[in-house]
Amino acid sequence: MEIAFISTEAVPFAKTGGLGDVCGALPAALAARGHQVTLLLPAFRSVHAAGVSLDKTDLSFAVEVRERIVGARLLSATLPAAGVATTTGDAGGVQVLFIDQPQYFDRPALYGDAGGDYVDNCERFAFFCRGALQTLTLLDRHFDIVHCHDWQTGLIPFYMRERFGSHRWMERARSVFTIHNLAYQGRFWHWDFPLTGLDWEHFSPDGLEFYGGLNFLKTGILHADMITTVSPTYADEIRSELHGCGLDPLLRLRGDRLRGITNGIDDSVWNPATDRYLIEGGYDVTSWTTGKPVQKRRLQEIFGLPVDSDIPLIGLVGRLADQKGWDLIIEVLRQHLEQERPVQWVILGTGEPRYHVALDELAARFPDRFGLKLGFSDALAHQIEAGADLFLMPSRYEPCGLNQLYSLRYGTVPIVMATGGLVDTVVDATAETIAEATATGFHMHDFSAVELEQVIGKALDLRQQQPNIWKKMIETGMSQDWSWRQSAYLYEQLYADTVSLGLGGVIPG
Questions:
Q1: Is residue 283 part of a domain?
Q2: How many domains does the chain have?
Q3: pLDDT digits (tens, 9 = 90+) for 487-499
């Protein structure tokens, strides 16, 4: 198939979260399966700083924005198909095209600064959507699938359905729209509507209007040929009032076109046997009992903690935000430290200032049991996954999650809230799953500090009292395949179903 990926993030060019990981890996995995894939991104400042060679092209376009003409040129690079074997034997790669418009995209951050979102985000991403249409026309290819990601691309399925601009490729192409996090919707006031280039007749509930304003995400959901999100359970959750963020009625209406496909991980990068950030050769499922303690010792040394292979070490990596359950984490962490529990903690992350303050205070008081790094380090993220015994993810909601997949691969037992992709990927240690040897971690079923403390206690007790079961849980998790190869196959099947919509409009099966 001929597939166009349209996104605002893709590793290594631009990333604020899981969207960047997905769009940096899935196109390469699809190319490895023999498809022709083109990735289209804004030329953010981070693109120029990514250390990847950018080539100028002779392609350019112009878009009318509020009675003025805004031009852009296209830059080009290659996204290597790293970590995947191609079906054709070709090392391959994915062509990446960047819409270079410095007025909109040459900024310190992607979407906003310390003061909040950029005030012209509607204009920036309406331009990006319209520029994407122009770019696909300039390429003069017969695209089968245009795969759009998150609210920043939400206008594109509507443009395609309305044949906006009469672009030739729209006669053949079908749209897929992926929701990575329903909470971020791209909502703007109604006076921004002219930025879309559409007539006011389309400012209606069956067009772009949503409670008197614009909603880019709603537009993509309503008009895409197929909708996906990043785990099966999250696809169910967002159809409920609790997790639907106001869009659950629409998602229920379009439920026959909504599917959940769990994200994968790049197992060439996240591989404890070959990880370049680990010392002394790393380890695998057959050697973790000797290799993992080496990484634990190193992690304790990095954070200045007492070196002790027997003391349980709990690790956390991620964004310090309410969604991730940091209010619960800090309450339990403080309890452990003040009561002198025989447990060590290491945390890597950055986010809300109030969490920075609380964690800094605890790290200063208890440096012998709590190691803290406020910021981000790719090396340290890998080292925590390799050296910790347990990894915590008590998220209020989690569309997919990646760290629990890294933890499984690295033999670090995850404790997760039973929500979204976490419940889809971590098998709770119950009497039944332990007997069946399918358990890989622990679930929280109540979002509370009491529940988190109890589940941590259950995990620590199992590790201490039943080491053979603990060992089996680790090895079961390490033996699973959460690579993008699996996810790419499922997307390939979804694309085939979506293309068939043009032959009668009914989903097969």
A1: no
A2: 2
A3: 999 999 999 999 9
